[in-house]
Write a structure and sequence with these properties.
With 115 residues, the protein is mostly beta strands. Helices cover 0% and strands 50% of the residues. Strands 2, 4, 5, 6, 9, 10 and 11 form a seven-stranded mixed β-sheet that branches. It has a four-stranded antiparallel β-sheet with strand order 1-3-8-7, with no helix packed on it. The relative contact order is 0.32.
Length: 115
Protein backbone atom coordinates (compact mmCIF):
# COMPACT_ATOMS: atom_id res chain seq x y z
CA UNK A 1 0.00 0.00 0.00
CA UNK A 2 1.45 3.33 -1.08
CA UNK A 3 1.57 6.10 1.48
CA UNK A 4 2.97 9.61 1.63
CA UNK A 5 2.68 10.98 5.14
CA UNK A 6 3.49 14.63 5.79
CA UNK A 7 4.29 16.13 9.16
CA UNK A 8 5.86 19.22 10.68
CA UNK A 9 3.21 21.80 10.02
CA UNK A 10 1.87 24.16 12.64
CA UNK A 11 1.42 27.75 13.72
CA UNK A 12 4.45 30.01 13.48
CA UNK A 13 5.03 33.75 13.71
CA UNK A 14 6.17 35.75 10.69
CA UNK A 15 9.90 35.37 10.25
CA UNK A 16 9.88 31.95 11.86
CA UNK A 17 10.85 28.56 10.50
CA UNK A 18 9.33 25.13 10.05
CA UNK A 19 10.62 21.89 8.61
CA UNK A 20 8.14 19.68 6.83
CA UNK A 21 8.77 15.97 6.34
CA UNK A 22 7.12 13.47 4.02
CA UNK A 23 7.74 9.78 4.59
CA UNK A 24 7.06 7.50 1.63
CA UNK A 25 6.25 3.80 1.65
CA UNK A 26 4.95 1.20 -0.77
CA UNK A 27 7.07 2.24 -3.76
CA UNK A 28 10.76 2.62 -4.60
CA UNK A 29 11.23 6.17 -3.36
CA UNK A 30 14.76 6.60 -4.70
CA UNK A 31 13.63 6.11 -8.30
CA UNK A 32 11.38 9.15 -8.45
CA UNK A 33 11.54 12.89 -8.26
CA UNK A 34 9.47 14.47 -5.52
CA UNK A 35 7.52 17.69 -5.30
CA UNK A 36 5.98 19.89 -2.64
CA UNK A 37 2.75 21.71 -3.44
CA UNK A 38 0.61 24.04 -1.39
CA UNK A 39 -2.96 25.26 -1.50
CA UNK A 40 -3.88 28.48 0.24
CA UNK A 41 -7.49 29.32 1.10
CA UNK A 42 -9.33 30.55 -1.98
CA UNK A 43 -6.34 29.95 -4.26
CA UNK A 44 -5.27 27.32 -6.74
CA UNK A 45 -2.73 24.69 -5.90
CA UNK A 46 0.83 25.94 -6.35
CA UNK A 47 3.97 23.93 -7.07
CA UNK A 48 6.46 25.02 -4.42
CA UNK A 49 9.52 22.90 -5.04
CA UNK A 50 10.96 19.89 -6.85
CA UNK A 51 13.89 17.58 -6.19
CA UNK A 52 15.34 14.96 -8.53
CA UNK A 53 16.01 11.34 -7.63
CA UNK A 54 19.56 11.88 -6.41
CA UNK A 55 18.97 15.44 -5.20
CA UNK A 56 21.25 16.68 -7.95
CA UNK A 57 18.58 19.01 -9.24
CA UNK A 58 16.16 21.23 -7.34
CA UNK A 59 13.74 23.97 -8.32
CA UNK A 60 11.62 26.50 -6.48
CA UNK A 61 8.69 28.78 -7.10
CA UNK A 62 9.76 32.42 -7.27
CA UNK A 63 7.62 33.12 -4.22
CA UNK A 64 9.79 30.89 -1.99
CA UNK A 65 13.19 31.07 -3.67
CA UNK A 66 15.92 31.90 -1.17
CA UNK A 67 13.71 31.04 1.81
CA UNK A 68 12.78 27.38 1.31
CA UNK A 69 15.12 24.41 0.82
CA UNK A 70 14.08 20.99 -0.39
CA UNK A 71 16.11 17.89 0.41
CA UNK A 72 15.71 14.14 0.54
CA UNK A 73 17.08 11.07 2.30
CA UNK A 74 16.69 8.03 0.08
CA UNK A 75 17.69 5.68 2.91
CA UNK A 76 14.81 6.98 5.02
CA UNK A 77 12.48 7.43 2.01
CA UNK A 78 11.82 10.94 3.19
CA UNK A 79 11.64 14.33 1.50
CA UNK A 80 11.96 17.53 3.50
CA UNK A 81 11.04 21.15 3.05
CA UNK A 82 12.92 23.59 5.27
CA UNK A 83 10.98 26.84 5.38
CA UNK A 84 12.67 29.95 6.74
CA UNK A 85 11.65 33.61 6.95
CA UNK A 86 8.02 32.57 6.78
CA UNK A 87 5.43 35.11 5.70
CA UNK A 88 1.65 35.22 6.24
CA UNK A 89 1.22 34.49 2.53
CA UNK A 90 2.93 31.13 3.08
CA UNK A 91 -0.15 30.01 5.01
CA UNK A 92 -1.51 26.94 3.23
CA UNK A 93 -1.91 23.20 3.34
CA UNK A 94 1.33 21.66 2.08
CA UNK A 95 1.31 18.38 0.17
CA UNK A 96 4.08 16.10 -1.01
CA UNK A 97 3.72 14.41 -4.36
CA UNK A 98 5.71 11.77 -6.20
CA UNK A 99 5.94 8.30 -7.64
CA UNK A 100 5.53 7.21 -11.28
CA UNK A 101 3.99 10.10 -13.23
CA UNK A 102 3.64 11.86 -9.85
CA UNK A 103 0.51 9.84 -9.10
CA UNK A 104 0.88 9.68 -5.31
CA UNK A 105 -0.21 12.40 -2.89
CA UNK A 106 -0.03 12.85 0.83
CA UNK A 107 -2.90 14.02 3.00
CA UNK A 108 -1.35 17.42 3.61
CA UNK A 109 -0.09 19.34 6.62
CA UNK A 110 -1.36 22.77 7.63
CA UNK A 111 1.08 25.66 7.91
CA UNK A 112 -0.23 28.87 9.44
CA UNK A 113 1.94 31.97 9.63
CA UNK A 114 0.40 34.55 11.89
CA UNK A 115 1.25 36.83 14.78
Amino acid sequence: QVQLVESGGGLVQPGGSLRLSCVASGFTFSRYGMRWYRRAPGKERELVSFISTSAGSTAYADSVKGRFTISRDNVKSTVYLQMNSLKPEDTAVYYCNGGPSYVYWGQGTQVTVSS
